[in-house]
């Protein structure tokens, strides 16, 4: 039986997340997903709304389960855009200055992903790229999250606007009452996570003071 207009859908994909091409597939075949740009299609029986984000680079920290939970909590305006790796300790070394340098010129939201020495994965979403600033920046869409042990997102409480602040010697997300929701040192080696009024979060790691094993920052291109 020839496909009819009712059971044909047109999808736009990109082999390098820059140059699109068109592929026409049937509704039956559309119940598939692509987790990275170079991955093969696999049957999973999901709808278009359940497609995982497209990663333009390999992640050492995020698997499909992480991606699925995180994507569901991203602002609606970021849905459907590819994720580009802007910084990775595996690729770029351990330097907050390098992280800031890689963020220069960007104007997109970013996702910070951390794995500590206890293999706990957590981080934060910022509506602006990380940068050095004399004051806090970001909006109420900023949030913290943790997969320790189950996924939980901590959204803006409305109590203050201490979203993100970057110093040459540290990066801070959330604050007030003498504690930071997430704090990293200049070497991206030591970190801390405390409950803070900005997000009313629990500490993201098993221990309030932690050692970073690996760290990634993804930018959501639009």
Can you walk through the features of this model?
Residues 60-221 form the TLDc domain. It holds the Pfam family TLD. This protein has helices at 27-30, 64-73, 89-92, 96-103, and strands at 8-14, 20-26, 32-33, 42-43, 83-88, 110-116, 121-126, 143-146, 152-155, 164-166, 170-173, 182-185, 190-192, 209-220. With 222 residues, it is mainly β. The strands form three sheets. Strands 5, 6, 7, 8, 9, 10, 11, 12, 13 and 14 form a ten-stranded antiparallel beta sheet that branches. A hairpin with a 4-residue loop joins β6 (110-116) and β7 (121-126). The longest helix has 10 residues, at 64-73. The relative contact order is 0.17.
Counting H and I runs of at least 4 residues, what is the number of helices? 4
Q: Number of domains in the coordinates?
A: 1
- List the uncertain runs: 1-49
Give the % helix.
10-25%
Radius of gyration based on Cα positions: 19 Å
Shape: globular
The rounded distance between the terminal residues' Cα atoms is 39 Å
- Oligomer, anyone? single chain
Overall pLDDT score: 83
Q: Please write the string of helix (H) and strand (E) elements.
A: EEHEEHEHHEEEEEEEEE
Q: Tally of extended strands?
A: 14
Describe the main β-sheet briefly. 10 strands, antiparallel
**Class inferred from helices and paired strands:** mainly beta
Strand content: 25-35%
Organism: Merluccius polli
Pfam family, one: TLD
Keywords: Receptor
Domain TLDc: 60-221
């Amino acid at each position: 039986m020839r496909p009819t207009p009712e059971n044909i859908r047109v999808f736009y994909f990109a082999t390098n997340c820059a140059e699109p091409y068109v592929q026409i597939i049937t509704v039956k075949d559309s119940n598939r997903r692509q987790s990275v740009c170079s991955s093969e299609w696999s049957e999973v029986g999901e709808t278009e709304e359940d497609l995982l984000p497209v990663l333009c680079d390999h992640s050492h920290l995020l698997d499909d389960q992480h991606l699925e939970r995180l994507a569901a909590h991203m602002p609606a305006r970021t849905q459907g855009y590819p994720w580009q790796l802007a910084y990775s300790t595996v690729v770029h070394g351990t330097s907050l200055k390098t992280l800031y340098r890689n963020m220069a010129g960007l104007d997109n939201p970013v996702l910070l992903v951390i794995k500590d020495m206890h293999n706990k994965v957590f981080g934060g979403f910022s509506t602006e790229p990380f940068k050095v600033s004399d004051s806090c920046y970001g909006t109420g869409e900023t949030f913290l999250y943790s997969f320790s042990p189950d996924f939980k997102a901590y959204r803006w409480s409305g109590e203050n606007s201490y979203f993100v602040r970057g110093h040459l010697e540290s990066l801070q997300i959330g604050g007030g009452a003498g504690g930071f929701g997430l704090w990293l040192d200049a070497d991206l080696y030591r970190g801390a996570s405390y409950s803070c009024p900005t997000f009313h979060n629990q500490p993201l790691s098993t221990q309030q003071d932690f050692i970073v094993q690996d760290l990634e920052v993804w930018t959501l291109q639009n």
